[in-house]
TrEMBL record:
<protein>
    <submittedName>
        <fullName>Phosphoglycerate mutase-like protein</fullName>
    </submittedName>
</protein>
<dbReference type="Pfam" id="PF00328">
    <property type="entry name" value="His_Phos_2"/>
</dbReference>
<feature type="region of interest" description="Disordered">
    <location>
        <begin position="516"/>
        <end position="575"/>
    </location>
</feature>
<keyword id="KW-1133">Transmembrane helix</keyword>
<feature type="transmembrane region" description="Helical">
    <location>
        <begin position="441"/>
        <end position="468"/>
    </location>
</feature>
<dbReference type="GO" id="GO:0016791">
    <property type="term" value="F:phosphatase activity"/>
</dbReference>
<dbReference type="InterPro" id="IPR050645">
    <property type="entry name" value="Histidine_acid_phosphatase"/>
</dbReference>
<dbReference type="InterPro" id="IPR000560">
    <property type="entry name" value="His_Pase_clade-2"/>
</dbReference>
<keyword id="KW-0812">Transmembrane</keyword>
<feature type="compositionally biased region" description="Basic and acidic residues">
    <location>
        <begin position="516"/>
        <end position="534"/>
    </location>
</feature>
<comment type="similarity">
    <text>Belongs to the histidine acid phosphatase family.</text>
</comment>
<dbReference type="InterPro" id="IPR029033">
    <property type="entry name" value="His_PPase_superfam"/>
</dbReference>
<keyword id="KW-0472">Membrane</keyword>
Length: 575
């Protein structure tokens, strides 16, 4: 069989790709209490289809059904190699499910033997008729990598800049003019979901997101929108208002009143990850000896929500070229960044002969090669950017380090505290990558806290289980120093210090544990050893000692004393 490849496929070699994909259809943000936000069956089919399409494009041209053909020769044909595919998502059930559904299409079950043989000679293959298990990196809120997938989360400044739109005259005019439209919506649609008073332009995305789901899955709502003359045009108007509201919140960088454009943080952080993944491919090829330990994946698939799309479209200047880039992309839409050379060889001798193209796949309805678009104000006939130019423009657009993100955001994120910024570096030229390390001050503090916690636990067990009681001799001279330092702060006390630019890099970051909690410093309290016997009496109460009696005075022959020793120790407060 002769395969008719497109002309450009014969003249180009794709060396790697980074794809950011929106989730498939899922339970909307507005949903009844007790309902989890999960991927719908329709959404799973949408994402699965995109997995098949990308498989046809990058792996097996014979199976292409929607995205054309640009094979990456280094990818395994049938058996998934997790060292070749980078898959990452946030810790949301519908996003994790999207990644799983996509990979089922990208590397479907295979009957190819894995060749695994046990020590006793038994051949073993994958279960479920060759189902393949992809590694999916899930970035939780305590993982520094989470900022790549949702740069505005845990970023108060980005949220503040985004919400400033509601204070503009444009927003207030849109609110007033759209109220008749929102008031005309059937209240029964929102019963048990939200208050009718909250259905307005300031919730334009949430309202449309909810009604989109109902329009897709609820027959009654579908028929009302399509057959009732009152609602026939309203659905389209709701979509337009949602697009407008989200664009002005997360995009609109060319008209923003802030030069920092922090409202576009979702796009800034995603740009850093895209560039970093492509840099690793280039670094491995041209500096393989120094970077032999670098993980360079031929393809990277990232799954998230619509905000990074809106932000990055605006940062690229695409919203000034085509109005569809000032809108929310459909479910299962993709931004594609392909690294290629303009001939059929492997890699050119000079990385300056590499190019990057930006493509957009508008959901699952469009068939054929993804459309290329010029970014950063380039002309339409210069959509393919030389690699050095792409790196330069992306570096000026993105957040260059974790410390920069933490500082710009004034973020309370755990990974922004107590990290030695001198041990981190951004991978801007593809040649550097270091892991974090905790600063000596913080490491010492952590060790001290752990030691004290263990000691306190053992101490409490001794009190509760062993009936340990504290006393001192009646006529013993008081100590001048006491046992602990009490509430006084000595020069030797070292408080935890937080650097002004806490944290590190947008590349080479390692995840922190998801179960960690941020601890607040606790104030010192007076040690029991500093209490003087003349102030112990107190005012009585349950468990209090008799007035005038020395603390811990021996009454070994008393039954009361034996009984009291069996009760837990009760603190006595003094003045």
């Amino acid at each position: 069989m002769v395969i008719a490849w497109p002309v450009e496929a014969a003249d180009e070699t794709v060396h790697g790709a980074v794809v950011f994909m929106r989730t498939g259809d899922r339970i909307p943000d507005l949903h009844k209490e007790g309902t989890s936000q999960t991927l719908s069956a329709l959404g799973a089919q949408q994402i699965y289809q995109m997995g098949q399409n990308f498989r046809g494009r990058y792996i097996n041209g014979l199976g292409s059904i929607g995205l054309g053909q640009s094979q990456i020769s280094t990818l395994s044909q049938d058996v998934l190699d997790n060292n070749q595919v980078f898959v990452m998502t946030r810790q949301e059930p519908y996003l994790i499910a999207s990644a799983q559904a996509f990979m089922q299409g990208f590397y479907p079950p295979t009957n190819v033997s894995t060749g695994k043989v046990l020590a006793n000679g038994t051949a073993i293959d994958l279960p479920f008729e060759g189902y393949q298990y992809p590694e999916i990196r899930v970035a939780g809120q305590y993982d520094p990598y989470s900022i790549y997938m949702a740069g505005s989360q845990q970023c108060p400044e980005a949220q503040r800049h985004s919400l400033e739109y509601y204070e503009t005259q444009h927003s207030q005019d849109a609110f007033k003019s759209s109220m008749p439209l929102y008031n005309s919506l059937d209240p029964k649609w929102f019963q048990g979901v939200t208050n009718q008073s909250l259905i307005n332009y300031y919730q334009a995305y949430e309202v449309y997101d909810y009604l989109y789901y109902q329009h897709t899955h609820n027959t009654t709502v579908f028929e009302q929108f399509n057959n009732d003359s009152v609602y026939r045009d309203i659905y389209t108007q709701l979509a337009q208002l949602a697009n407008q509201e989200q664009y002005y919140r997360w995009g609109n960088t060319s008209a923003s009143s802030h030069s920092s454009n922090l409202q576009s943080m979702p796009g800034k952080t995603l740009a850093a990850l895209v560039l970093g993944q492509l840099q690793r491919i280039v670094a491995k090829q041209y500096d393989g000896t120094r970077n032999s330990n670098q993980e360079a994946y031929p393809v990277s698939f990232l799954f998230g929500d619509h905000e990074p799309f809106v932000s990055l479209f605006s940062l690229f200047g695409l919203d000034d070229v085509n109005e569809k880039f000032a809108a929310i992309p459909p479910y299962a839409s993709s931004m594609i960044f392909e690294l290629f050379s303009a001939d059929s060889t492997t890699f050119p001798d000079d990385p300056a002969n590499l190019f990057v193209r930006f493509q957009f796949q508008n959901g699952t309805d469009y068939k054929g090669d993804p459309q290329s678009y010029p970014i950063f104000g380039r002309s339409p006939n210069h959509a393919d950017m030389p690699w050095p130019d792409f790196g330069q423009f992306m570096s000026s657009t993105m957040v260059n380090s974790m410390s920069e993100w933490c500082g710009a955001c004034s973020s309370p994120a755990l990974f922004c505290w107590g990290v030695d910024e001198n041990s981190t570096v951004v991978m801007v030229d593809g040649r550097e990558s270091k892991k974090w390390k905790v600063s000596p001050v913080v490491a010492g503090a952590i060790g001290a806290v752990v030691t004290l916690a263990v000691a306190a636990l053992l101490f409490a067990l001794a009190i509760l289980v062993g009936g340990v009681r504290f006393h001192r001799e009646r006529r013993r001279k008081n100590s001048e120093l006491g046992g602990f330092k009490g509430s006084a702060k000595l020069a030797s006390d070292m408080d935890l210090s937080v650097p002004k630019s806490p944290a590190g890099t947008a590349e080479g970051m390692v995840g922190l544990g998801r179960d960690m909690e941020r601890k607040k410093p606790k104030s010192r309290v007076e040690s029991w050893e500093l209490r003087q016997k003349e102030g112990i009496g107190g005012s009585g109460g349950a468990g209090a000692l008799d007035r005038g009696r020395d603390f811990g005075e021996s009454r070994g022959g008393s039954l009361d004393e034996i009984e009291s020793s069996m009760r837990p120790v009760v603190p006595t407060e003094t003045v």
